[in-house]
Amino acid sequence: MTATDPQGAPIDPRVEALVNDLISRVADKWTMIVLEVLAAQGEMRFTVLGQHIPGISQKMLTQTLRAMERDGLLIRTIHPVIPPRVDYRLTDLGLGLGDAFCGVWRWAERNLTQIEAARHRFDSRP
Amino acid sequence: MTATDPQGAPIDPRVEALVNDLISRVADKWTMIVLEVLAAQGEMRFTVLGQHIPGISQKMLTQTLRAMERDGLLIRTIHPVIPPRVDYRLTDLGLGLGDAFCGVWRWAERNLTQIEAARHRFDSRP
């Protein structure tokens, strides 16, 4: 027997690797928050984006944006002005990923209390 | 400014911690595959479940099932027969999480080629 996807078709190992990779990336809260902020606000400058994400360092924001750009999730536009202005916006691909993860986020919000209660019951078993 | 959820409401830090925790858990491919197999097959015995998940060790399957049980994602039923029989099935909570993650899975399947192409373009820049 082989592993199958939710529709029962065999899992393409490339898809499995990509899913694991993407999920562990977006498990990173910074990526998740960048997806959210850009989905809500549209195009933003680097500095303004940073102001919307309390606690993120400039280095971490740069790394996060670079990884997202590499995956085609966002577009980086350099405006030839002095000083140079750099804007970021989500591609359709990035918007789609934000939507897909939104379901997981909503599920967790909805079920927070229930999961905490389940953990408490499990941990207090004799 | 504070971090906001996709609807623009402030993020509850407990929700954020839970989302990060759950996503990194399900990023684990074994949890994802257990969710899929049990969603498709209903209740299963430990040994049969293991046969549906090629490559998983008995120890890893035990650990994965225990973590999912603790979160209230599945129910473990011990039948008092000799030898004892143990069955696993998803709770409504587990089925809901499977559905929510299904969107991410489908997104990755749909966009695999596009992401690989974006990475290739990015990596071959001068």
In short:
The structure is a homodimer of 126-residue chains. The first copy, chain A, has 126 residues and is mainly alpha-helical.
Please explain how this structure is put together.
The structure is a homodimer of 126-residue chains. By secondary structure, chain A is mostly helical. Chain A has a single domain (13-123), classed as Winged helix-like DNA-binding domain superfamily/Winged helix DNA-binding domain (Arc Repressor Mutant, subunit A, Orthogonal Bundle), CATH 1.10.10. In chain A, 63% of the residues lie in helices and 11% in strands. The first copy, chain A, is built from five helices and three strands; from the N terminus they run H-H-E-H-H-E-E-H. Chain A has helices at 13-27, 29-41, 46-51, 58-70, 92-123, and strands at residues 44-45, 74-79, 85-90. In chain A, strands 1-3-2 form a three-stranded antiparallel beta sheet. In chain A, strand 2 (74-79) and strand 3 (85-90) form a beta hairpin. In chain A, helix 2 (29-41) packs across helix 5 (92-123). The first copy, chain A, is elongated, with a radius of gyration of 19 Å. In chain A, 25% of the residues are buried. The mean pLDDT of chain A is 82. At the A-B interface, helix 1, helix 2 and helix 5 of A face helix 1, helix 2 and helix 5 of B.
Question: What distinguishing features does this structure have?
Answer:
homodimer; 126 residues; Arc Repressor Mutant, subunit A; 3-stranded antiparallel sheet; 5 helices; elongated
Name the beta content range of chain A. Answer: 5-15%
**Rounded mean pLDDT score of chain A:** 82
Give the helix level of chain A as a range of percent: 55-70%
CATH class (first level) name of chain A: Mainly Alpha
Classify the secondary structure makeup of chain A into a structural class. Answer: mainly alpha
Radius of gyration of chain A: 19 Å
* Count of all domains of chain A: 1
Low confidence ranges of chain A:
none
- Major sheet details of chain A: 3 strands, antiparallel
- The end-to-end distance of chain A, rounded to whole angstroms, is 38 Å
CATH topology of chain A: Arc Repressor Mutant, subunit A
Number of helices, where a helix is a run of at least 4 consecutive DSSP H or I residues of chain A:
5
Strand order within the widest beta sheet of chain A: 1-3-2
Order of helical and strand elements of chain A: HHEHHEEH
